[in-house]
Write a structure and sequence with these properties.
The protein is α+β, with helices and mostly antiparallel strands. The protein has 2 domains: 41 residues; 137 residues, no CATH class. The protein has 2 helices and 13 strands. Strands 7-6-5-2-12-11-10 form a 7-stranded antiparallel sheet. A 4-stranded antiparallel sheet has the order 4-3-8-9, with no helix packed on it. A two-stranded antiparallel sheet has the order 1-13. Helix 1 runs antiparallel to helix 2. The longest helix has 23 residues. It is globular, with a radius of gyration of 20 Å. The two termini are 13 Å apart. About 12% of the residues have low confidence.
């Protein structure tokens, strides 16, 4: 009975963490592999609505209205530019990292992102900037994420070769779940 109960709790916990890992993705990413690795972003499932852009910005507190987040690069533009590549690399003088656009709207442009490789994404309609409302991990590809936005209205944007940075809340949730399981197991041993 006790083993069955603990197994049920464990399965529920694992399912909860799986769902959280797939869908509760913050707008906070780093490149996969070395800083020199090229990262691909492409429009898919209908692409971007006419007049909409998709791009990348420095991650500092995940707030586009403050600090270095006002510095951005554009990658995709509605139907005309549907695939782009950029890389995150250390600057030649060693003073920090930068994003370089290899292919895209701002081809050849660079964006200084400070002393870390962290970055985020945004939608832009020519007037206002919007963070993605929905970031979903592609369960068939470990390093693929889909970005969509209710303001953008059409389709999704797929990003490859990037990894989401777990939030402190994720670590707290994981730790609390593990401690809870340890506590249940320990309580079972004490009541024998």
């Amino acid at each position: 009975m006790k083993k069955g109960f603990l197994a049920g709790v464990w399965l529920f916990f694992m399912y909860f963490m799986y769902v959280g890992a797939c869908y509760a993705i913050p707008n906070h990413f780093v490149p996969v592999g070395s800083p020199q690795e090229a990262l691909t972003v492409e429009a898919s499932q209908g692409g971007l609505q006419s007049g909409w852009y998709f791009g990348v910005f420095d991650w500092q507190g995940n707030n586009m209205s403050q600090g270095n987040n006002m510095s951005k690069v554009l990658l995709l533009l509605s139907e005309s530019v549907t695939s782009a590549q950029f890389k995150v690399e250390e600057k030649q003088d060693g003073s920090g990292y930068q994003i370089s656009v290899i292919e895209g709207v701002d081809k050849g442009e660079t964006l200084d992102i400070g002393d870390s490789e962290d970055f985020s994404f945004f939608f832009y309609n020519g007037t206002n900037y919007y963070e993605p409302d929905n970031i979903i991990k592609d369960i068939n590809n470990e390093y693929s994420y889909y970005f969509s936005n209710k303001n953008q209205k059409t389709g999704t944007v797929k990003g490859n070769d990037i990894s989401a940075v777990p939030t402190p809340q994720s670590f707290i949730l994981l730790l609390s779940g593990v401690l809870g399981l340890v506590g249940l197991t320990r309580r079972g041993q004490l009541t024998k």
